[in-house]
Each structure stands twice: as C-alpha cells, then as structure tokens.
Amino acid sequence: xxSKISTIQIGKNGLTPGTFEIIKNSFKTRENVKxxxxxxxxxxxxxxxxxxxxxxxxxxxxxxxxxxxxxxxIKKWRKPRN
Length: 82
Description:
Layout: E1 5-10, H1 17-26, E2 32-37, H2 45-59, E3 63-68, E4 71-76
Parallel strand pairs: 1-2
Antiparallel strand pairs: 2-4, 3-4
C-alpha cells in the first residue's frame, strides 16, 4: 500500500529551487506533503513561519499549510482557497 504522505527535509541550504520542484513533483503521486525543518536550518518558530509562507507563495492558492512544531504539512485542494 502506498503512503499518502511524502516527507521532505529542509536543511541548512533552506529553500532552493530544487526544493520547490521536489514538493511539486511529490503532489503528482501523493495527497499531502510534510516538510520537516532540521536543526541546521534554524530551529525557531518565526523561521518556520517564514518558510511556510514562502512555500505557500511559491505553490499558489490551490495549496494550504499547517504548522505543527517544526513540521509544515501541505495539502493540495482541487479549487483555489480564499
């Protein structure tokens, strides 16, 4: 049975164009994507919020995110969310 969630790790390089490509490609086969922020990426709540907003901005309004600790859970919607 396939997992419905794909997990990626964000490390000291932060968000790169390759990271966004991995996230976009993960949605071709998965329903949800988890982005885990490693300690080397900067372990502060404000940094997690900044990264989540950058991911949301890059992906567009068909996606929503939820922050749980140092993990960002991203979900794709069929219709754009307001």
